[in-house]
Amino acid sequence: MSSSSMLSSSSSSVVQYSDIQKHGGNKEFSCPSGFKFSPNDRQLVTHYLKNKIMDVSEPANLIKEFEFQNINPDQIPMDKVRYGKKNEVFYFTSKEWRGSKTSDGHWEATGEDEKILDGDEVVGFKKVFIFLWRKELIETKSQWVMQEYRINPSICSGSVNGDDDKDMIAKVVYHEFLF
């Protein structure tokens, strides 16, 4: 699969990134039955996040905007995505969600930032979080995992919105059988 391929099916048919752009900016994009939106880490950063920061329009229904402040993971609209995998959703969001707590728990980082590479160049960073439910003073791991994707500001110098470090992509996954 070429690096410009964003949507694919199990057959050899591939919708190219250029085909998506032909459908125009924020218009809805429609894929044939069986196609799934399944970009890798590098594609999320170098295509979708960079384009958002640089104000390049994308099909509106591939990655929507959502703010996670004070939201329990079971309140995240998982059913609003038409082309992803089951129990997996991608949203553009901002760093303001970090550190926000809900009445029922909070997201906790599980480790260090992972570098996202394009060849030898660091194009972004990924951090993994798990939601911890809190009842009274007891915290319990949930089946909700969030992967946060941030861009390396050096690849977006001269961005349109001037705030390369604000926007990010959150990939939220509900693991039915995690524990």
Structure description:
The protein has 179 residues and is mainly beta. It has a single domain, classed as NAC domain (Metal Binding Protein, Guanine Nucleotide Exchange Factor, Chain A, Beta Complex). It has two helices and eleven strands; from the N terminus they run ββαβαββββββββ. It holds the Pfam family NAM.
Topology at a glance:
Elements lengths: L4 E4 L5 E3 H6 L13 E2 L3 H13 L10 E2 L22 E7 L6 E2 L2 E5 L4 E5 L2 E15 L2 E14 L15 E8 L5
Parallel strand pairs: 4-5
Antiparallel strand pairs: 1-2, 1-3, 5-11, 6-7, 7-9, 8-9, 9-10, 10-11
Key features?
three-stranded antiparallel sheet, eight-stranded mixed sheet, disordered N terminus, globular, Metal Binding Protein, Guanine Nucleotide Exchange Factor, Chain A, 2 helices, 179 residues
Kindly state the number of beta strands.
11
CATH class: Mainly Beta
Structural class: mainly beta
Which of globular, elongated, flat, extended, rod-shaped describes the shape?
globular
Largest sheet entry = 8 strands, mixed
CATH architecture annotation: Beta Complex
Low-pLDDT stretches are: 1-26
State which percent range the strand residues make up.
35-45%
Mean pLDDT: 78
Please tell me the total number of domains. Answer: 1
Intertermini distance = 34 Å
CATH third-tier fold name? Metal Binding Protein, Guanine Nucleotide Exchange Factor, Chain A
User: What order do the SSEs take from the amino end to the carboxyl end, as H and E?
Assistant: EEHEHEEEEEEEE
Radius of gyration: 17 Å
Helix percent band: 10-25%
Number of helices: 2
Pfam families: NAM
Keywords: DNA-binding, Nucleus, Transcription, Transcription regulation
InterPro entries: NAC-dom, NAC_dom_sf
GO molecular function, one term: DNA binding
